[in-house]
């Protein structure tokens, strides 16, 4: 039985036993809330395992605040990506318990309040210029409950720095590799570990980098198996995918433990 089916069964049982009104059950079964400019998805957690994530670019500060209000009324975890400091400050005036990370342009539910996974994901960054994307990936994974290891500034131009951390990386269950320029770091990592690697190309580099297109094509053409490539500067996608994988491993572990 899926989590969604369990939720529906629990609601129907509560209605049957008169501990929950039909109106309250209908409210909980409502799939989205239409607030005029947006239809906020209230069932995404049941379908995908995590609530709707708010993309901050192109939205006004008040629109973001109104969407957060809707999600919080449904007791959801909050994750806003690509939100600048001015918009974030507007939101924090209404919801001061949320946390803003300026480098990553991410606004979240307090990270410390979220239970952490047993398994870990490695967030590996080639250079300091790639840190905003690396932190977007790291914070996305963390707010989704994934324990992480940060391994930063270990690009191939000084590859000896990487080898000082290779056992830490190998002890993780998935790696997210963030790199610009020619993007070689993801191929190097994939050739050294026995777990999946999510490669995130960044738009960091000189002219022929073509704002990340060169990096993207290089990562796609990697000769090292086990690499999956995200879109340019998509740290969020890398963190989300890694967290989903860790969540699957945790569920399998819980199932095995319950059998014993």
UniProtKB/TrEMBL annotation:
SUPFAM superfamilies: N5-CAIR mutase (phosphoribosylaminoimidazole carboxylase, PurE). GO terms for molecular function: hydrolase activity. Gene3D superfamilies: 3.40.50.1970. One of its GO terms (biological process) is 'de novo' IMP biosynthetic process. InterPro entries: P2CMN_synthase_LarB, PurE_dom. Residues 119-251 form the PurE domain. It comes from the Bacteria. This is 1-(5-phosphoribosyl)-5-amino-4-imidazole-carboxyl ate carboxylase. PANTHER family: PHOSPHORIBOSYLAMINOIMIDAZOLE CARBOXYLASE-RELATED (PTHR43064), SLL1489 PROTEIN (PTHR43064:SF1).
């Amino acid at each position: 039985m899926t989590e969604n089916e369990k939720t529906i069964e629990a609601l129907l049982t509560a209605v049957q036993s008169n501990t929950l009104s039909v109106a309250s059950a209908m409210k909980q079964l409502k799939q989205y809330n239409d607030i005029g400019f947006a239809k906020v998805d209230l069932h995404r957690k049941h379908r995908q395992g995590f609530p709707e994530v708010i993309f901050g670019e192109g939205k006004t500060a008040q629109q973001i605040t109104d969407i957060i209000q809707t999600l919080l009324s449904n007791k959801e975890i909050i994750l806003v990506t690509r939100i600048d400091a001015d918009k974030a400050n507007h939101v924090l005036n209404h919801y001061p318990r949320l946390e803003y990370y300026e480098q990553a342009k991410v606004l979240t539910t307090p990270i410390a309040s979220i239970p952490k996974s047993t398994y870990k994901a490695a967030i590996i960054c080639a250079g300091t210029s790639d840190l905003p994307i690396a932190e977007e990936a790291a914070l996305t994974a963390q707010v989704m409950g994934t324990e992480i290891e940060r391994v930063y500034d270990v690009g191939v131009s000084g590859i000896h720095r990487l080898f000082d951390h290779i056992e830490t990386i190998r002890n993780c269950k998935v790696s997210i590799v963030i790199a610009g320029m020619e993007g070689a770091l993801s191929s190097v990592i994939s050739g050294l570990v026995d777990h999946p690697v999510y490669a995130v190309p960044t738009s960091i580099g000189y002219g022929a980098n073509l704002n990340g297109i060169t990096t993207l094509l290089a990562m796609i053409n990697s000769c090292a198996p086990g690499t999956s490539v995200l879109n340019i500067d998509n740290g969020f996608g890398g963190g989300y995918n890694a967290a989903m994988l860790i969540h699957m491993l945790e569920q399998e572990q819980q199932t095995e433990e319950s059998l014993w």
